[in-house]
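Shipment paperwork, digital attachment
Item: protein structure file
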Amino acid sequence: MKHFLFFLMLSPVIMAQTEIQSYKIIQKISQVEIRFYPPVMMAKYAASNQGSGFGKLFGYISGNNTANIKISMTTPVHMEKKKGESTMAFVLPKKFKNNNTPKPNDKSLEVFEDQGGYFAAIRYSGYTSADKERQYGETLNQLLKKENIDILGPPKILVYNSPYKIINRRNEILIPVSFKP
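Attachment content:
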């Protein structure tokens, strides 16, 4: 019980010190935000099985990279689920660019610069699940269709909290959109 309470108390402290991927809210439509995300470096793991790759990505930021350096954890963690493939990606801190990002030693990982762009986002709480992802994804799709906003790609699930955080959890569905401010 002591360990559980320790993690419960430590989780908000750790997350308060964690860099959050930057974005600018362009417009609010009901419970949806249209956001602009600037380019950012990311580390990604893709698999045809259900493995998330969290351990491999964590290994990369823990020093299993060509520079043997530790990289600070950021939020959110990006996840995509497509037919036959699932991906998980960590956003790297802002100080990393194409010219100074270490390559992973693990060849199953990819490091790349995400180009950013405009996205529609809807937030939900609690632990994420397939049912919540489907429910909020449908709500977001319906609202975008109603507002005549073109969808440019598949949704991503964003998870902002460690599994140890129990209350006030933040998750989002993010969909790339065609948007002219």
